[in-house]
Amino acid sequence: MSDPTNPTPPHAGWRLECTYAALPSLLHASSRPVPVAGPKMVIFNHALARTLGLDPTELSRAEHAAIFAGNDLMEGSQPLAQAYAGHQYGHFTPLGDGRAILLGEQITPTGERFDIQLKGSGPTRFSRRGDGRAALGPMLREYLISEAMYALGIPTTRSLAVVTTGELVYRQSPLPGAVLTRVAASHIRVGTFEWVAAHQDMAALQALADYTIQRHYPELATAEQPYLSLLNAVIERQARLIAQWMNVGFIHGVMNTDNMALSGETIDYGPCAFMDTYDPATKFSSIDQHGRYAYANQAPIAQWNVTRFAETLLPLLHEEEPRAIEMANEAIHQFPDRFKWHWLAGMRRKLGLSNEESEDAALAEELLQWMHDNQADFTNTFRALSQEKLKDANLPENEAFRSWHERWLARRNRQTLSMDESRTLMRAANPSVIPRNHKVEEALEDAVERNDLVVLERFLSVLQRPYDYTIDQSEFQMPPPAGSCGYETFCGT
Ligand code: AMP
Ligand code: MG
Q1: Which structural domain range is residue 143 located in?
Q2: Cα–Cα 20 to 30 A to 292, which of 16, 18, 185, 274?
C-alpha cells in the first residue's frame, strides 16, 4: 500500500486511457517494451507536449528518457501491440506491430484522445524475423518530416520524442539504436479491418467499426446507415489528404494498406520524400521498382486501398451481398471526383484564385506541363509566382512561360481579389520551404555521425513556419545541385 501522506509521484500531466485494450483480443496482444541499456534524450517536442497537457518541467531529462525508451511505464498504461494485416505492393500479408507498442491514449486538457506509441521498443508477438528495434537516423527523419507536414497544415501523426537506447542495431552496418514516440489520432489502419475480415470474425468487425466511428466520426453513430457513412467519410478524408500531398509535392512512398490510417492522417514516414524537379513519375523508394507509389499514382492507389477497406465492410453494409457490393461500388466511384475537387481547390489557392472558372484545371495543368518540360522545381516555381517580382525568381522564362503567365494574370484579374490579396492567398498555400532531401540528409548526417543537432534544430524551426517567406529560410530553399538526382529512400530501416 502506498503511504497516503506521501505526495503522489510527479505524473507530469499524463492522463492515459486504454480503450483499445478493451476491443476483442483478436485486435491486440499485450506486450511490454523491452528495457534498453542507456536511454538518452535526443530531441523532445515541447510544443506538442504542452498540447497533450504534459508539463515537461515536472520530470528530469533522465526520467523523460526512461519513459520514452520504454524503461519506465506511465501510470495507467496497458502496453500492447496492435494486430493488423495489409496489402503490401498489392499482396495480402498478416503483419501487426513488429516494432511498435501502444502505451495508451492520452486525454488532452481539451478532451481530445491521442495514441502514444513507442516505435523501436523491442520485439512483439508480430515481429517475425525482425529485431523490433529502430535506428537513430530514420527515427529523426520521421520526427523532422512529420513535424514539417504538420506545419504545412497536412493531417499527420506527430513526433513527441526521440531517445537513443545506448545499444546498437544491426542493419548493413551497426547503427545507434533509437526509439521514437509517435502521437496519432489513432493507429487504426485499412489493414486493421483487413486483419479482422480475414478472420471472418463478425463480432470483432462490428466492434472495430463502431470503435472507429466513435473515435473518428462520432457524428455518424446516429446516421441511418452508419457503416456506409463511415466508408464515405473515409473516402472523403483520403481524397482530401492525397490532394494535400500532391499540392506540396509529397510522395509517401509506401502506400500499402497497413500504412493508410482511417483517421485520415499521414502515417509511416519510412521512404517518403518531397519532389524537387516536377516530374509526375517521381519515386524515391529503392524497393518501389515499378513506381507503384510514384507521385502521380497516389490518388489511384488511395482509391485501390479504400476499395480493400470497402470489401472488409461488406457484411456490415447489407445482408445481401450483391446489394452490399453495389453500395460499396457506388461509394468508391466517388473517389476520383472527390480527389479532383480537393486538388483543384488547392490549385486555385496556389494560383491565387478565389472564384471558380471552368478552365482553371487546364490552367493549372498547363503550368505543371511547363514545369515538366522545363525541369522546373515544383516548390520554387510556386514560390516564385507568389512573389511580387517574378524577375528575381530564376525561372526559365521562355515563350511558353510568358504565354501561360499572361493568361494567368488575365485570369487573376477576373475576380474580386486585388493582386495583393491574391498574393496573400498564394503565400498561404505555397510553402517557401519544404524538407528537401539533400537538406534532410545533411541535417541527419550531423546528428547521427557527429552527435551535432544544431543544423537539425535550425531546420526544424524553419520548417515550423513554412509559409513565412523570411530570409532565414534561404539556406534551405535551394534545390539539390544539378547532377545529384537519383535520391533513394529505404523502408523499415
Ligand atoms: P513498415 O515498413 O514500417 O510499414 O513495416 C511493415 C511491417 O514490418 C510492420 O508489421 C512492422 O512492424 C514490421 N517491421 C518493420 N521493421 C521491423 C523490425 N525492425 N522488427 C520487427 N518488425 C519490423
Ligand atoms: Mg508501416
Answers
A1: 7-187
A2: 185
